[in-house]
Design brief:
This protein has 201 residues and is an all-alpha fold. Helices cover 71% and strands 0% of the residues. It folds into two domains: 106 residues; 59 residues, no CATH class.
């Protein structure tokens, strides 16, 4: 008797599974199709981005060649094309090079181009910092060749601003706040006292 009941249970389970399959098979097929389409689409996107990067790299190298050959106007135009059509990394690099070309032709236009890069948050921070250069310490490096020392920056940031993005010394947009000077003087005095106590250790 137990065998009969077991066979009946198995038959009932098969019928239930068959009904479930008939009810949801289209959804299963759609799911499989979507997975395959997603994987295929992602692979196609990767191929397209790699192709774009390769083409942009070639265009940037061509612009550099024009630059090295002294063809400033053509190089500027070639960099502008990379800025308009290139991938993100080459686009930022081309903007910096384009600003350099502009600066050679017209210093005001070059400065304006560098300032636009420095203020554009869509540009990678490394390029923004490069586009907002500072003259660190004139001949201080030569002094350090004879007398061991160090250099540091003392400054402030307006409330709510990120100090890392504030303009540095020698920038036309530098902001002054004399209230930080006592802290700098105290820091220098501390360095001097420590040097007198320990020397260069």
């Amino acid at each position: 008797m137990s065998d009969i009941f077991r066979e009946v249970d198995e038959e009932v389970r098969r019928e239930q599974l068959q009904k479930l399959w008939e009810r949801y098979q289209n959804l299963v097929y759609v799911g499989i199709f979507l997975i395959l389409a997603g994987v295929g689409g992602w692979r196609a996107y990767e191929w397209y981005e790699a192709k774009r990067a390769s083409e942009t790299g070639a265009a940037f190298e061509a612009a550099q060649t024009l630059d090295q050959e002294g063809k400033a106007a053509e190089a500027e135009s070639a960099y502008a094309k990379v800025v308009a059509d290139g991938t993100a990394s080459y686009r930022d690099l081309a903007r910096v090079r384009q600003a350099a070309e502009l600066a050679q032709r017209d210093s005001k236009l070059g400065i304006a181009a560098y300032e636009k890069i420095a203020d554009d948050r869509s540009v990678d921070s490394a390029w923004r910092d490069l586009a907002d250069p500072i003259m660190g310490a004139e001949d201080f490096a030569y002094v350090l060749e004879i007398v061991p020392g160090a250099m540091f920056f003392l400054g402030f940031a307006p409330e709510g601003e990120d100090w890392a993005h504030c303009c540095g010394i020698h920038s036309t947009r530098m902001m002054l706040d004399e209230s930080v000077m006592p802290q700098g003087a105290a820091l220098l005095a501390g360095f001097a006292a420590r040097f007198l106590e320990r020397g260069f250790d």
